[in-house]
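pinned: reference chain
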Amino acid sequence: MRTNRRSLLLTLLMMVMVVSIFSGCSNNNPGKDANGGNSAPANAAPTDKPATKKIVLGFAQIGAESGWRDAETASIKETFENDPNFELKFSDAQQKQENQIKAIRSFIAQKVDAIGLAPVVESGWETVLKEAKDAGIPVFLLDRSITAGNEDLYTSFIGSDFVLEGQNAAKWMLDELGADAQVNIVQLEGTVGASAANDRKKGFEEAIAGHAGYRIVYSQTGDFTRAKGKEVMEAYLKKDKNIQVVYAHNDDMALGAVQAIEEAGLKPGTDIKIIGVDGIKGAFEAIAQGKMNVTIECNPLLGPQLKQAILDFKEGKELPRWIKSEEDVYFGQKAIDALPNRKY
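pinned: its structure tokens
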């Protein structure tokens, strides 16, 4: 009798243990709470997927040497800082190539998804851009290019046709003054070694090569700044005032020349024709005042085009080597009419 009771107790004890084990297992069910109840409604929607990883762009800007450059910087920041799908890491090189190279290496170390570069000069990029290429990071050049033969080091160049800009400046001058006129020209060049300066000089000089009466009597860098443009123009006017045209590689230098000409007792826009490049609002205002004659547009609002290029690249689309910006030539009433709508 005792044996039967002992067997029965053992059997009951084993059953309790089994129930406890299965009950404990059931509490690990993600659909149950700690007490075995349902932790969510039976028809609850699946948990939302994690947010998409942001695309990180490292942008190495030249600096803030002109109103045009400020407009480009604003376009980049507005485009990428206001888009929740992007994160922007921005670097201002203060017109120094070594600072841009340091910034690019920092971007590589941070493993950004793309690099934007407005190169201060054309040459000297091979080593650092190869480092970016080896790291698998696409590089997009903005508004200035690099030495020919290095096209494999970047994905696309987004910007203007600088040679055409120089040609358009010369065309306006020839149309305005006549192909057979006798004209002395002062050329205010951009930063030495910059593609914009090299190509605007090339396009202009090639366009006037067949016109013997058109002579560049002085050509000097103004480093794309208003202060330097004024300084160079002042120095030349002290030596010779027999000038009919100033061709400046950007509007800021042209506006600096306007100041120098006024201080020398001459009328800019009348005594000396003033040609600028970029199409900044200040140039349109000077044209409206009769102090400048023409500005060759160079569009700095490249943020949206850069953003689209990065998205297209991420989707595996084939990008053109050169993504050109749309531009025009403004003078006279056309410039005055366009002034209220200028964004930079």
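why pinned: Residues 1-50 have pLDDT under 50 and may be disordered. The first strand starts at residue 55 and ends at 61.
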